[in-house]
Write a structure and sequence with these properties.
- 2 copies of one chain form a homodimer.
- Chain A has 351 residues and is of the alpha/beta class.
- Chain A is built from 9 helices and 17 strands.
- In chain A, the strands form 3 sheets. Chain A has a 9-stranded mixed β-sheet with strand order 16-13-12-11-7-10-9-8-17. A 6-stranded parallel β-sheet of chain A has the order 3-2-1-4-5-6, sandwiched between helices. Chain A has a two-stranded antiparallel sheet with strand order 14-15.
């Protein structure tokens, strides 16, 4: 801990995410991106053009005393090695997600953090996503009564990005890339033990790593939480769908308000059955308008600037860290349970 | 078999479905609804008003030589007893779905059919539903390339109908009531063995029987088939969602055309990332319009009249029966696998 006013950050891996962090932290006066190292010449050049000091090696960057914090935004498989080296060199570490590729590796990183007294924090930026904050508000405020199912879907149709994310040895695949976000959100939303995990992976566009998955978590209360990532979905299903005993909520897509429909009153004697070509159904007939109420829950504002503000406030002894390592470990173990369930084609016990 | 021109039908159980069959068969000249028996006085009265001969007992109806076919539309738990009695009395049997409540009971019914030489056929009317015929056409014609996932959902928000369908001893619950339809459709669509079954039940409005379920079938090719029935869904998810390696199909609701979006071309170099409050994603960015093609597949016409036409044609030796008992048995065993999986909270091997 220190009470410095401004923490200097050096970036390791100036790729898509690494180069995006300065933008994410724009306006956060407590941190300053000052340097960068990348193995690719053209990325070094770009960093230099953008006013960052570039280093010839990781060791050079770590040896520079002006650097307080190292941001690691490399492929996933080398996070661990770099993070431990950085902490041992006296730097705090902000690490891109997934923090690493196994819980054993993460434990080594946590041990290093404890041994060196340096911060290790993971950039779980999607905790600040507005769709998540909105559905969480609906859950927290019990707008639907007792929630019994939550469905969280992220659908694209481009396959896996054509970089290291397609490769197993670099920690590619959609469980690690997107699963890590939506699992983190699940555990933040539902404050219960996860008892069971069942999951299947897809390999539509890629045989080496999963290009999507479906997982079902059974929480202690019986609540079912479905998580789905797809990269061959040319039509998308809603981002969020939540069922309570008194109503349903839906968020169709990023940036859209939530729609909530709840029951009011029970008198349904004049049900008009749905007639299809081959039958009729009263059970599945829509409710009459006067027995439901529909409301719009506007998107809850999220401010991703809080991430770096919190890192600085933590280092100044003013705040708890928001993204805690035990939370990160729990998500990592859940991802391992997903891989285990998919491989065994069985339900896996969890907590 | 006989070559009668018109087969006379007697109805056992003149409730919602029993009284609906004459309407379903209207215009089918090969069958005629002539009589009815119901344990409720007011239903007897209604049948009489509608020109049906009413009987004082099941035995009386079965003893009437003018009756060729008995339609059984009672609660599920007594289908078996009545069907066997009817066949032994020399009647052919049309039975409402689910044919009975266990595969052992069904085997007894099949044995009786073979012993007596009488037809036993189940009214799986939703084989003629237009949404099903439309999605099946998309599957059969490989419009999406190789299909790897099919999702079939039936969502209502009224709980279970407030009659015997709420009671375990009468064979209530949504697996038996609606599962029997959408499982039958699944097995008709995908001509492969089902290797694995995983299912969970809901008890949101009822503790005695399931008021909904989610099941995942893994077919031999790896194709995943999700089936979902919900009765506390105030906002519904699409009736059909199908994913192929080259495109996606959706049918939003009963009576709606299918929408199909397929890939064309791969050049996606100028991806515009989706920016959310807390991050950006290229993986989940929508495709540019010029890299996809969107088409509407109009609803395929279905004619439920074919059910009774086929029964008559079969009895006249002119056609195979459409709804075959081995198919019905397979669905019954799948429903048992669903109950077993839900109870054990485990994946169950099937075929």
């Amino acid at each position: 801990m220190s009470d410095k006013k401004v923490y200097n950050i050096g970036i390791i891996g100036y790729g898509g995410m690494g180069s995006y962090h300065p933008e994410l932290a724009k306006g956060v006066e407590e941190v300053k991106f000052v340097g960068s190292y990348d193995i690719k010449e053209e990325r070094q050049k770009l960093a230099c053009e953008r006013g960052l000091k570039t280093y010839d090696s990781l060791d050079d960057l770590l040896a520079d005393e002006i650097i307080d914090i190292v941001l690691i935004a490399t492929p996933n498989d080398v996070h661990k090695e770099i993070a431990i080296k950085a902490m041992e060199a006296g730097k705090h570490v902000v690490c891109e997600k997934p923090v690493t590729v196994s819980s054993a590796d993460l434990q080594d990183m946590i041990d290093a953090s404890e041994r060196t007294g340096k911060l290790l924090v993971v950039h779980q930026n999607r905790r600040w996503d507005e769709d998540f904050l909105t559905i969480k508000k609906i859950y927290d405020e019990k707008m639907l009564g007792e929630v019994f199912a939550i469905e969280s879907r992220v659908h694209g149709s481009r396959g896996i990005p054509g970089d290291w994310r397609q490769e197993k040895e670099h920690g590619g695949g959609m469980v690690l890339d997107w699963g890590v976000h939506i699992l983190d959100q699940a555990l933040l939303m539902v404050n219960e033990k996860v008892k069971k995990v069942y999951a299947t992976l897809t390999h539509v566009t890629n045989q080496l790593v999963d290009d999507g998955f479906r997982a079902e978590l059974t929480f202690e209360s019986g609540l079912k939480y479905i998580l789905e990532v797809g990269t061959s979905n040319f039509i998308t299903l809603p981002r969020w769908y939540m069922l309570g005993n008194n109503g349903t909520a839906i968020i169709e897509n990023w940036g859209m308000d939530a729609r909530v429909v709840c029951a009011r009153g029970k008198s349904e004697e004049d049900i008009v059955p749905v007639r299809t070509a081959a039958g009729l159904t009263k059970t599945m007939a829509p409710r009459r308008d006067d027995t439901i109420s529909e409301t719009v829950v506007p998107l809850v504002h999220g401010n991703i600037k809080e991430f770096y503000k919190n890192v600085a406030a933590y280092l100044s002894g003013k705040e708890e860290i928001i993204v805690k390592l035990p939370q990160v470990m729990r998500v990592m173990k859940l991802m391992e349970a997903i891989f285990e369930s998919a491989e065994k084609q069985q339900v896996v016990d969890f907590e």
